[in-house]
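Supplementary Text 2. Reproducibility record for the structural model of the 520-residue chain.

All settings were left at their defaults, and a single model was retained for analysis rather than an ensemble. We include the record here because the model underlies the residue-level annotations in Supplementary Table 4.
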Amino acid sequence: MQTITKKLRLIYVPFLLITISFVVIYTFLHWLLFIKTNTFSLNEDILKFWLPFGLPWVLVLLWLRPRIKLLKLTGGNGNMPFLYQFIAAMAIAAPTILAQEYIERASGALTKLETITEIDKWEQTKYYTVKRFYIDKTNIGVHSSFDVSGRYSRDFNMHLYVVMPILVSEADTTSSSCSAWLGIEYSKRISNSLDDKEKEEEYLAFANESQKDLDKKDVSQFICLERVGNTDDGDGFKEAVLSSPKYISNYSPIFLAVNEPYENRNEDTFAWIFGTFGIGAGIWLIMLLIPKLDESVFNQYDGGRPSNDTDIKELIDFLKPSEGYFITPIIIYLNILIFIIMVFAGLGFNSFRGQDLLALGANYRPSFVDGEWWRLFTSVFLHGGLMHLGANMYGLLFVGIFLEPLLGRKKYLTSYLLTGVLASCTSLWWYDATVSVGASGAIFGLYGLFLALLLTKRFPPDFGNAFLASTLIFIGYNLLMGLNGGIDNAAHVGGLLSGFVVGLILYPKLKNQVESEPIE
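Retained model, structure tokens:
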């Protein structure tokens, strides 16, 4: 009984306090800054999902992780502590995500309009009813958008954003302006391994199906209208408005049709917030009661003597520029900074649209032929989404640990940029008109260089034998994944071969170099 009391006092009660505090504080700040005062503008997907999903990990690592170490967690190949951290983070994130949806809908007032032209006379709200209106289905705006998703970008997603002018009556179709738009989205997911011709055929069939559905749909049947916010879908609808052949009203609001009563907009959501909190707290309590306390660690912690958290310290060291390891973290931070800027510009998060990447400097043969040579360089610092960025930065972190101390700053940075540009050139040579981005070409260049030095026995035998096999597996596996489609394998091969050649060129200069610290 005394052991259970210790667990509750030192681990479970702090978990409950952290969870409740985070849900309440984050939801309050969301309401105050983004709903009540509208102080900031942020993509709603980030605000309502990704931040509530990611920030709990910070809380778990800083405050709960040292407490989880008080438990004797064995089995699972040493992954049990991570499992406990994962469950704790999810238990915090789930009710927080639901609370954001609830607070936005609960704060969304309903404005009753006689006609849509009255919308500018009232304070902006989220929901509207319109007594008299006419929707012009003959002069619509359409925008197509494509992105990839899934592990190794195996899914190809097609989106059609359709907007229709909301007018007072059919007689208003003689005008060239409208006060608002009604939006409808169609989407379909296919395999990204299909070739370009097959994708085009799939898209044409998808477009025809969408057109048939729109033709028979009675778009005037809805209970109320919901304003489209700052989301990826909202950006798609705005592009559709710009494509309208007749109406000029780029700043008019866009709405979605809602076929549920306004009073039911948050039905059961409030109960689900408490439900998910209770389920998460219950699961974590059961998990907490199963293992025993590590009495030696407990006495040290309870006595106010902090334990040595070496793994976090080592991770921080890997991410901190230092002597012999300076360029790698700088490149990582630069890539992350560019990604963050793109996110806060509202371009996306999980994935970015090809036209946005092209505007920012993606590699593209027609643009290069027109004289935009700088795309060979800028494309190396752009990424297609979060997973693309994460995978590349992890690969760079691993190879940079070994190569940068050996090559030195100048040779390492020159090798990275040179192989990245040569990888971009290979992509241009292989593809006629493909938008290509990512640091993977430059990273494959570093792995090619690493492979050349491993094969030429530049590293100690024990080290070389251990990492030669793992490097070959890493390269082979990633090249095979690139055969599934949606991945610029030409840039990978170009970077790998150019890096291997650079490694052979540098080998004589490195052969007699004396390392200040032996590689273990």
